[in-house]
Design a protein that fits this description.
single chain, 117 residues, mainly beta, seven-stranded mixed β-sheet, four-stranded antiparallel β-sheet, 0% helix, globular
Length: 117
């Protein structure tokens, strides 16, 4: 059974940090590229960061470049998103996405990140 379980969200003050984790199971993790998306209230879901299946290529939305870092640990079947210098506009539900071509696309349930003083 395919499962993606996100964790690490919460309430943080502006300028703070959080580390999101996505635990994957039920499929061959190392063959899948990974992405983090987010969706704020009243807004469309947007791509935040991506990492290739081997981990050698990463991409970021302009809004998070220099502040967020995506990584993966194949031995643990996990994807991470380190978020530093958080801003109120980073408040959203964050989703983990694993994909291997157009047919094999899996989503987690999401984890809430709230940046507020």
């Amino acid at each position: 059974q395919v499962q993606l379980v996100e964790s690490g969200g919460g309430l943080v003050q502006p300028g703070g940090s959080l580390r999101l984790s996505c635990a994957a199971s039920g499929f061959t993790f190392r063959f899948y590229a990974a992405r983090w998306y987010r969706q704020a209230p009243g807004k469309e879901r947007e791509l935040v960061a991506g990492i290739s299946s081997a981990g050698g290529v990463t991409t970021y939305a302009d809004s998070v470049k220099g502040r967020f870092t995506i990584s993966r640990d194949t031995a643990k079947n996990r994807v991470y998103l380190q978020m530093n210098s958080l801003k109120p506009e980073d408040t959203a539900v964050y989703y983990c996405n694993l994909r291997n071509g157009p047919l094999y696309v899996y989503w987690g349930q999401g984890t809430q990140v709230t940046v507020s003083s």
